[in-house]
C-alpha cells in the first residue's frame, strides 16, 4: 500500500474521533487567552497517544514533538489555534455551544481537532518518515497581541527549531473536499483604532451654544475614507472600517464626547505607517478646526501574512497528489488578518485553506457569524492532508 493510501485509510479510521473532539471543543468554547480547559483537553488527548506535551507556553498554549527515524534530519512545525469568539450561537445542532455568548465561530475547534487527528496519524507512522514534527497548539489568535507572538517569545520556534511552518484554516467559501493555496502575499496586517472626539454637549435644540462632537465625528468618519480612496495604490489594497460608535446622548441631548472603534487593514508596511500618520493628523486637525478635540489611538496589530513561494508551491503540488488537481484551487488576496503572520516573519511558512462549505446541507455561513458551521467531512480530509504535507516536506531536500 502506498503512503498516501495508508494515510487516507488512517484518516478514515480516525475520522469519528476527530469529529467527536471537534464537537466537544465546539460545545465548550473559551475566549482568547482563557483556553484553560481546552488546553487540558488537548494535553489529555496527546498523552493518550503517547505524546508528552509541554504545557503552559504563553500560559494556555502547548507544544509537542513527534520524532520519526533520524529525528535531527529536519524539523517542521504544524500549528492550530484554540480560542473562540464572543458570539451567541444561533445553530440548532446537538453540539451547540454550552457557554452563553461564546462560540467557535471561526473554526478553531476544527483546527485543534484536526491537528490532534494529524498527531495520531503521524504518531502511528513515525517509523515511516525521517525527521521531527513539532505541534503548536496556540491560544489567543482572535485578540491582540496575538498568541503567536507570545508563543514565539516563549520559545515555540526553538528546541527544536523548525525550518518550515504549516498552518490550516477553514474556508466556508470553498466546497468541502477542496483545498486553497496562494503563493506570496495573502492576508493583511491589522490595526485597532480607538478614537475619542470631545466637544461641548447640551440641549439639542440649542446647537449654537454647543460644540457638537456627533457632527464632528460624522465629518471625521467620512473624511478618513478619503485616505483610502485618494492615497492607497490599487496594487496594495487596504480597508478602513468603524464598527462601533458610542454617542451617549438622547433625542434632545448632545453628549460631550463620542467614541469610535474600528480597524485598518493593509498589505504594505510602508503604506501602513503612512496611513497611520495621515489618519491621526486628519482626525485631530478636523476636530480642532470645528472647535473640538480628538484623541486618536492606534493599537498596532498583526503584520501581513506572506506565504513562502517555494514552500507553498511544493505543498500545493503535494496536495494535488493527495486530493487531485481538480480539488486544489487558487486563493485571492484576503484583507482579513491572522496572527500566523508572526510565524511567517520568522520561518518559511505556508497558510492554506480547508474547504468546509456544503450548500446542499445549508452550511454556507461566513466565519464570525452566529450561524457558522462546517461540513465535518473536512476533518477527515484535513487530518490526512496535513499528515501527508508534513511527511512529504520532511522528505524534501534543501
Structure description:
With 398 residues, the protein is α/β, with parallel strands linked by helices. It folds into two domains: 3-188 and 304-395, Aminopeptidase (3-Layer(aba) Sandwich), CATH 3.40.630.10; 189-300, 2-Layer Sandwich (Alpha-Beta Plaits), CATH 3.30.70.360. Helix content is 35%, strand content 25%. The protein has ten helices and 16 strands. The protein has helices at 3-13, 15-27, 36-48, 108-124, 147-153, 213-231, 269-289, 309-323, 340-344, 377-395, and strands at residues 54-57, 61-67, 75-81, 132-138, 164-175, 179-181, 184-187, 189-198, 202-203, 238-246, 253-254, 257-266, 293-300, 305-307, 328-330, 348-357. The strands form four sheets. An eight-stranded mixed sheet has the order 1-2-4-3-5-16-6-15, sandwiched between helices. It has a four-stranded antiparallel sheet with strand order 10-12-8-13, covered by helices on one side. α4 (108-124) links the parallel β3 (75-81) and β4. α1 (3-13) packs antiparallel against α10. The radius of gyration is 23 Å and the shape is elongated. The chain starts with a helix and ends with a helix. The mean pLDDT is 96.
